[in-house]
Amino acid sequence: MIGRAVLVEDPHPPTPDRAPDAASEHPPGAVPRTDDRPSTAPRLTLADREALLELMVGMRTFEERGVALYKQGRTPGSFYDGHGQEAIPVGAAFALGPDDVICSPLIRDMGAHLVRGTDLTEIIRHHLGRDNRLSRGREGNVHFGDPRKGVVGMVSMLPDMFVVAVGMAMAFRLRRERRVALTFFGEGATSPGAWHEAMNFAGLRKEPVVIVCENNGLAYSTPTSAQFAVPPAERAAAYGMPGVVVDGNDVEAVFAVTHAARERALRGDGPTLIEARTMRMHGHGSHDDARYVDPALLEAWRGRDPIATYEATLRGAGVDVDAVRARVLERLDAAVEAALATPLPDPAGATDGLWATDEPVPLGRGDAPWSGFAPAPPEPAAAPEAGR
Amino acid sequence: MSAQGAEVRGAVVPGAGAARQGTLVGAASADGSPAGATRTMTYLQAITDALRVEMRRDERVLVLGEDVGAFGGAFKATEGLFDEFGADRVQDTPIAEAAIIGTSVGAALAGLRPVCEVQFADFVATGFDQLVNVAGKMHWRTGLAVPMVLRLPSGGGFAGGPFHSQNPEAWFMHAPGLKVLAPSTPADAKGLLAAAIRDHNPVCFLEHKHLYRRVKGEVPLGEHVEPFVARTVVAGDELTIVAYGAMLHLAVEAAARFEPGRVEVLDLRSLVPLDEDAILASVRRTGRVLIVDEANETCAAGAQVAALVADRAFSDLDGPVRRLAAPDVPIPFSPGLEEAVLPTADRIAEAARELLAY
């Protein structure tokens, strides 16, 4: 505590040193379990559940390969992964319809891009700085989105894209469209003023926005105890919206609360703040060994790995988990090979395209793999009437 | 530009007194428009007219900002719009510039054409991130267009003090992806604002508060758009004065103190894009240039003009590139202090005299 010795008469004494026991402030046991799910949980078929697993495995497998490519020096800049947080982007995006938008998937949300159907080879080209239609090499790592899939790429200043998502939702409301905007951000992003402004706008105007706060306990090296006095979900009420805490390591729970939040928004009742509690299992990025994290805390959370637990559940339900992994690996190998064979962008194009010169193209529709969005089976054809 | 300049020569006529006395009345021509009907409007009325016409023309256009609804805005620029277009298209917002600008970015991405009013241009600093990091970079990064306009009531001259008098246009000039406009006449205020609304990019529209009710001119009725180019307002052969916004009127007043045909006055109108061809063509012909900014001197729009001239018209110059701008201090409140920092017609004329004698 710098300066404590000269502050003996300070009328505002410094706060006591933070408890060093990080596990006590971010314990996995504090996360509500599945009994907190909405009572009207939407139905997931076995095929849906297998898809959820495949998407989470897809995210992790891609990111493990991404770390390797970065450490091999093949990926310029930096690489970030969301190891252990796969259930949040996958579960949340799985609840979205094709016309909904994501603004924006952030640093731990690769799975949301996979749910929406963004081309994996294009994503890898983007990471490698190769020519690609997501960013044309102008952006790297997690800064991308596929407008053709209704996804807007993030910026580094957080939670700027939350504010933008509220504006997109406003447009949907004004046009009486039946769609929502979903935004992601971490718990650290609840500190800047822009977060308050966006929460206030969204709550005041009842915008159809679904707000997913990923509380993984750490903003780079800063624990939640040094970030805020009141957890994000508790603050939601102050903005006129419900705050829901969900186990961020339970993909079906995340799906269920997101589905409920989307339904609420579509009814015109406004936004919901979902605080998905999880743990950042790796460093902030591949450059960060995260030695500041208590190993006991990581060990406690490792036993709650969202993929391992879900895999065990689905294996018991008869899903061929090995086949899921084999499919994921086959797609990834092919995508990496294609991406590595792609040239770098032409340097001559670095300055073009600053200005939009054509009428803007509307955002496209994303994949919506949940069976609940599948078109209803056609009615049996009526027998032709006599005389026709 | 020369043909256009000939058409508008003398379009801005200084009034009988100095601008500071509040008597400056310009008579803008309906340049470029067919022989359609015009009406005499103030600069402020022309802005309202542009909003009204564009909102009638395109239902995607909406206005949002603090107090812009039934109240009609702090300067009454949106007066009457709430009654005509309703609360969805003329939205009162909380006091939150980051959210006003940021939700406008989102609305633009979703297919609307928001026009946000920042109550005073000075306040844009609180929403700066959404403008320079989100809106400005969006198209280059992602290919997504952000068609939105930020109306920024700017400028001093009326004892507004350090937080209600700034000319922050150079902030935006330095951020790639933002267009920056600064009209000086009612007809341009309407035509440039309408063109900004139709543009597919984020546009910062610097409307000078001190011109709102002090400048009147003929404004084309109905649809009226102006291109983002400079305009020769006064023709001359021996010196070019480059100015924009409120300074344009002082430059014209200063030019009138010399024999007709000696001093040319070029109104930039658009700072991004900057009409380099018009600047260079004028300076190459006159051989002398004086650049006037109301903004703080360092890295102001005029510095960019000076660099352009030094780089590409050096061999055509008969004298040094001269600049007049506010010194690098905040704009003071007390009238005498404010007068001491803002350029005046007297100082412009004095600098012009020195250059002509060089």
Automatic annotation (TrEMBL), chain A:
Natural source organism: freshwater metagenome
GO terms, molecular function: oxidoreductase activity, acting on the aldehyde or oxo group of donors, disulfide as acceptor
Keyword Nucleotide-binding part of the UniProt annotation: no
Region annotation (Disordered) ranges: 1-41, 343-388
Domain Dehydrogenase E1 component span(s) in chain numbering: 56-341
Record has Magnesium as a keyword: no
Gene3D superfamilies: 3.40.50.970
Keywords for this protein: Oxidoreductase
GO biological process: branched-chain amino acid catabolic process
The protein's name: Unannotated protein
InterPro entries: Alpha-ketoacid_DH_E1_comp, DH_E1, THDP-binding
A Pfam family hit: E1_dh
TrEMBL record, chain B:
Pfam families: Transket_pyr (PF02779), Transketolase_C (PF02780)
InterPro entries: THDP-binding, Transketo_C/PFOR_II, Transketolase-like_Pyr-bd, Transketolase_C
Cofactor field: thiamine diphosphate
Keywords: Oxidoreductase, Thiamine pyrophosphate
Segments forming domain Transketolase-like pyrimidine-binding: 41-214
Molecular functions per Gene Ontology: oxidoreductase activity
Entries under PANTHER family matching the protein: PYRUVATE DEHYDROGENASE E1 COMPONENT BETA SUBUNIT, PYRUVATE DEHYDROGENASE E1 COMPONENT SUBUNIT BETA
Name the record gives this protein: Unannotated protein
Species for this entry: freshwater metagenome
Lineage: unclassified sequences, metagenomes, ecological metagenomes
